Task: inverse folding
């Protein structure tokens, strides 16, 4: 369903992505691995449409993602390595906005997602007073609430404790069980059922 | 269900208003700057009201322009830094529309207070009370046009590390017509003449800005996010 075909991307004079091709079907997770600087983040951002590749194409449901950008983005959620949250707003306010611009969301839904990611007790504090792990839990609640088909996750377990890492694996497994798609850049593998994982190693 | 466009605009406006009121110093800074610039002129130029009155349109509009440049710094920069602007771009909603809502909110928070506070500074420059409504109207329209054209420059300088100087350089040529017609309108208002003609021209610039600026700003922001 998600198809990446012959992607080449340069950052300045560095040829970061060299002919990257893979595809992901519903219920499958592509795990991107590779050394620091191998282009995992670059690849995720190129899939999300934040970077324009010099060559190659990303297709979603058979259509070029770039040409059908808004429809593609409505089905996609991207979580970068810095959780995109406003420090001066509370976690709940952040989610009310970031999910609210995508779809109509109720306070009860936000509550349920925060409970699921273990972020409920600190969701009413301003985000800048929270630890990095707590921020990530709030951002993960945002990923759940987006109800997107395709999750693009960049190091989703960064800053999380053992519980939190387990939580990410569970959320990912649930999403895959609902025929969702995931592309995740990881350093440590995510404990997911082996038959659901497509490994992609990026060479530096 | 996808959020309708109007609700998106309301959400953007509400978020930015809330953020602004949690950090009021950022709002007050451009306003204070404007008032300080405008009130320093009577101290340095001449105490003679008739001469001050001649200089008033220029002083007020240059002050307003510089203050709006100062305020433009905050339009997209913080959102770009904490990654929330990326969420705008990836939400599946029209980025053009969201940036338009954002720019209007920015004007509400910077341009409108400036226009409303202008009579304070204008009084010190010897502008007669009868000219105040005209001054406020011209500044309201002019600052709106400046916010819109400034949004393009703010978007274009997102990628630059220290974008402040570049932002000013890019904005100034776009702002000069606004400055010229705005000062003209104010001058006519002070003289007690009809100032409809420069106001129409300011209005035309604002309409052009509404039509084109959000589109250009969205394209610029997408490049800036790379």
Result:
């Amino acid at each position: 369903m998600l198809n990446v075909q012959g992607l080449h991307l340069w950052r300045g004079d560095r040829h970061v992505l060299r002919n990257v091709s893979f595809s992901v079907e519903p219920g499958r997770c592509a795990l991107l691995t590779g050394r620091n600087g191998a282009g995992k983040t670059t690849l995720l951002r190129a899939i999300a449409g934040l970077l324009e590749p010099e060559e190659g194409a990303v297709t979603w449901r058979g259509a070029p993602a770039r040409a059908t950008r808004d429809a593609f983005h409505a089905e996609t959620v991207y979580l970068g390595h810095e959780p995109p949250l406003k420090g001066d707003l509370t976690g709940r306010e952040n989610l009310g906005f970031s999910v609210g611009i995508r779809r109509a969301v109720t306070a009860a839904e936000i509550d349920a997602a925060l409970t699921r990611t273990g972020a409920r007790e600190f969701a009413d504090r301003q985000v800048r007073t929270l630890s990095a792990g707590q921020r990530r839990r709030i951002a993960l609640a945002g990923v759940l609430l987006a109800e997107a088909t395709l999750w693009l996750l960049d190091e989703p377990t960064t800053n999380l404790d053992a519980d939190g890492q387990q939580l990410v694996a569970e959320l990912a497994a649930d999403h895959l069980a609902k025929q969702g798609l995931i592309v995740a850049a990881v350093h440590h593998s995510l404990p997911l059922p082996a038959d659901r994982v497509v490994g992609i190693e990026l060479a530096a | 269900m996808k959020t309708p466009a109007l609700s998106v605009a309301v959400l953007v406006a509400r978020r930015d208003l809330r953020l602004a009121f949690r950090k009021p110093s950022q709002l007050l800074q451009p306003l204070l700057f404007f008032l300080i610039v405008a009130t320093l002129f009577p101290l340095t130029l001449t105490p003679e009201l008739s001469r001050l009155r001649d200089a008033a349109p220029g002083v007020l509009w240059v002050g307003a322009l510089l203050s709006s440049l100062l305020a433009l710094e905050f339009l997209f920069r913080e959102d770009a830094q904490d990654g929330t602007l990326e969420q705008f771009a990836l939400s599946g909603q029209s980025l053009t529309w969201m940036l338009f809502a954002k720019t209007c909110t920015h004007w509400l928070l910077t341009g409108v207070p400036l226009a409303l506070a202008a009579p304070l500074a204008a009084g010190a420059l010897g502008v007669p009370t009868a000219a105040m409504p005209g001054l406020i109207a011209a500044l309201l329209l002019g600052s709106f046009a400046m916010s819109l054209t400034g949004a393009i420059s703010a978007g274009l300088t997102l990628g630059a590390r220290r974008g402040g100087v570049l932002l000013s350089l890019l904005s100034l040529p776009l702002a000069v017509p606004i400055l010229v017609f705005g000062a003209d309108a104010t001058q006519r208002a002070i003289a007690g003449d009809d100032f409809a003609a420069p106001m129409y021209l300011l209005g035309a610039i604002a309409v052009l800005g509404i039509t084109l600026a959000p589109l250009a700003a969205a394209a610029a922001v997408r490049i800036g996010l790379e």
Observations:
- The radius of gyration of chain B is 18 Å.
- Chain B touches chain A at residues 1-3, 7-8, 11-12, 15, 18-19, 22-23, 82-84, 86-94, 98, 225-226 (CB under 8 Å).
- The mean pLDDT of chain B is 91.
- The CA atoms of residues 34 and 63 of chain B lie 5 Å apart.
